[in-house]
Amino acid sequence: MTQMTQEEIVSNTKTVLQGLEALRVEHLTLISNLNEGSKKDPDKSDIVMKNIENIELGLGEAQVIVVLASHLQNIEAEKQKLRTQVRRLCQENAWLRDELANTQQKLQASEQTVAQLEEEKKHLEFMASVKKYDDNQENEEQLEKTRSDPVVELFPEDESEERHNMSPTPPNQFANHANAGYEIPARLRTLHNLVIQYASQGRYEVAVPLCKQALEDLEKTSGHDHPDVATMLNILALVYRDQNKYKEAANLLNDALAIREKTLGENHPAVAATLNNLAVLYGKRGKYKDAEPLCKRALEIRENVLGKNHPDVAKQLNNLALLCQNQTKYEEVEMYYQRALEIYEMKLGPDDPNVAKTKNNLASCYLKQGKYKEAEVLYKQVLTRAHEREFGTINGENKPIWQVAEEREENKLKNRENTPYGEYGGWHKAAKVDSPTVTTTLKNLGALYRRQGKYEAADTLEDCALRSKKEALDLVKQSKVAKILGVPDENRRQRMKDNDNYDDEIKRIHK
Question: How far does Cα 150 stand from its chain's mean position?
Fold first, then answer.
């Protein structure tokens, strides 16, 4: 038998209902006739009554089916109506989600723009109030600090455990040190960038709550033991470290280290990055013995994963050397710096800034041990290479600044009125090759000359270092102001060249 549809069932039920109603009328007429006759037949009456009862039962069931069918139709109509409403609500919900996402993006962009404008405003206010003697006063104070502690370390504070004066960490160092070996996922990128931006500006009251909110959301969605949680823990630890909250930072880094070891494995580059950050933190607290094994383990991981001659291995060697230097383990310091120097020269070439930085730090190690000859050789190598890159091959007329300084020292008794700074001042142009490194080398070699009693040579190098720093600051200020005011790069470069009198200075040097 074929299955009947709901409509067919209802139609047939109504037909049966009409038939049963007619049959019931006939039976009522029949029972009435039997009761009125002269001869009553009880048996027939009973049979007819039973039939009437059955007919009424059938009528009741048929009516129930009809009513039920009508009710089902009403329910179906209501169901269709609700489905239509649900579809409309889903569409409205999707539209509202899109609007919310767009609004959030606009809000984040606005916050970044506001932060940038605030920094530009501060810079413009500074430029409006700064005076020439401010630079001179700052340079004199810096010179006094250098003379009191002549050895200047080169590597950034995130890598140098000797430097305790905290300042906001630049954004690129936040990202590199917190997340080395682990890419920031898309869902965290915007928030991650905001945290880094605020922290680099020193706005910790904004950066810390953002980071904590990110951690809370991550732990709810992904659980505590997730690499993304470790990433944000590293970021928050760096923020705390910049605030000198070393204990809180250490707790976060230890937690991040445990998560990364559990989820990524004990020999993952991200584990090495966390170990390095923890070692730097201990170094800042003066816990060099606790920091050294962490740094050595980070070195071992990077050697195994990246190879023994990778630049990141050299970077870790530099950090380890600084830790050992604070413990006066000078033999190990020399070994680590020499190996780092070999890696940089082999992989990055002799002109890479890291080569000069490592030579400078190795020379500073020699200087602290009283090995003046070895230190002097390295300092002169750095300055000579910077001179060659800027001015060409060295000859009798094209001399590096250290040679000029030594000649001034030799001639100080013959000519008490030595040539003023302006006559050789153009050499500060060479500092543009790698300004921080060259300037630091000038200061350190000047300190070495001063220890040897060569005060005229020391003054020459220190004066040149001050001029290089001042010129670098002026160029940065001019560049920032021109950028804010929308001055084209070509015009800006021409104006800087005119102001610096570049060609005239070069001619003076070669005379």
Answer: 34
Closest alpha carbon to 169 in 191, 188, 197: 197
Give one DSSP letter per residue of 228-274, joined into a string: HHHHHHHHHHHHHHHTT-HHHHHHHHHHHHHHHHHHH-TT-HHHHHH
In whole angstroms, what is the distance from residue 358 CA to residue 322 CA?
Answer: 11
pLDDT tens, residue by residue, 330-382: 999 999 999 999 999 999 998 898 999 999 999 999 988 999 999 999 999 99
pTM of the model: 0.59
Written as one letter, the residue type at 170 is P
Query: Domain locations in the chain?
Result: 6-115, 188-409
- Find out whether 10 and 66 touch, Cβ atoms under 8 Å: yes
Q: How many CA atoms lie within 13 A of 92 on its CB side?
A: 6
Give the tokens for residue 177: 């040190």
Report residue 287 as tokens. Answer: 């816990």
| Amino acid code (one letter) for 355 | V
Return d(Cα 324, Cα 304) in angstroms, integer: 22
Q: How far is CA 313 from CA 14, 193, 296, 298, 343, in A?
A: 91, 27, 11, 9, 8
Measure Cα distances from 116 to 121, 122, 199, 238, 450 in Å: 9, 10, 13, 22, 44
Question: How many Cβ atoms from other residues are within 10 Å of residue 333's Cβ?
Answer: 25
Other beta carbons within 10 Å of 368: 15
Which CATH superfamily includes the segment(s) 188-409? Answer: Tetratricopeptide repeat domain (1.25.40.10)
Direct distance between the N- and C-terminal alpha carbons of the chain, in angstroms, rounded to an integer: 117
> What is the sign of the dihedral through the CA atoms of 148, 399, 474 and 135?
positive
